[in-house]
Design goal:
This protein is α+β, with helices and mostly antiparallel strands. The chain has helices at residues 24-35, 79-94, 114-131, 138-142, 157-170, and strands spanning 18-20, 39-44, 52-58, 68-74, 134-136, 207-208. Residues 178-188 have a biased composition (Basic and acidic residues).
């Protein structure tokens, strides 16, 4: 489908759609910025069934040093779709789905199901896209993961908003309102995974969107 010529496909035919203000110049700037943090961006021909992925290549054992990551981007998509993919994959990173990274201020998170990770990542991507002039198909994407008993109470909104801010900061986008971590109530249960728990995330964990 991606190699044929003819009239543009109607809305809803392509698996991934987005419209907005992002152009190739902006994407090139984003690629240069994330590479400074050892997040390497590669364009790949994925047809139209996948948008991208991110994986951890190396995990540093020394504080203050960077781990390395590889992000693949579908070269067939337009710049606005690629921006939505960029936001989604970086959301996986900053939400801790690939494990803790002290250099990037990524915390240890409790183990989550794939569905929970996708809900968090796409919710984060939706915030980043909406605040930066891109309208994507988050609702269509998320409906594939929403279960009957899924509610907003199962989403950690603090972590989602924190990750959205970190993605925007990394990409050099306009600063938005800082989200303060909610204060614990006196009788609130302590987290199952305290901040000093060992990070058992795999060294090479890949998420596809």
């Amino acid at each position: 489908m991606m190699d044929t010529e003819g009239d543009p496909l109607p809305t809803g035919v392509s698996a991934f759609e987005a419209a907005g203000v992002i152009d190739q110049t902006a994407l090139d700037r984003f690629a240069a910025l994330i590479e400074k943090k050892d997040i390497f961006w590669k364009y790949v021909d994925m047809g139209d069934l996948k948008a991208g992925s991110i994986a951890r290549l190396t995990r540093t054992a020394l504080p203050g040093e960077k781990s390395a990551y590889k992000m693949r981007m579908n070269q067939n998509h337009n710049p606005n779709v690629q921006f939505a993919t960029l936001a989604h994959e970086l959301a996986h990173l900053f939400l801790g789905h690939l494990g803790q990274d002290k250099y990037l201020s990524i915390p240890i998170r409790p183990t989550q199901t794939h569905t929970q990770q996708e809900l968090e990542a796409e919710s984060t991507a939706y915030i980043v896209c909406t605040r930066n002039g891109v309208e994507n198909q988050s609702a269509s994407y998320l409906k594939n993961y929403v279960e009957k008993d899924t509610t907003t109470e199962r989403l950690d909104m603090y972590q989602i908003m924190r990750a959205a801010g970190q993605v925007e900061t990394l990409l050099g986008l306009a600063a938005h309102t800082k989200v303060d971590k909610p204060q614990k109530k006196r009788n609130e249960t302590l987290p199952l995974f305290p901040s000093n728990s060992p990070d058992n995330s795999p060294d090479l964990f890949e998420t596809d969107s």
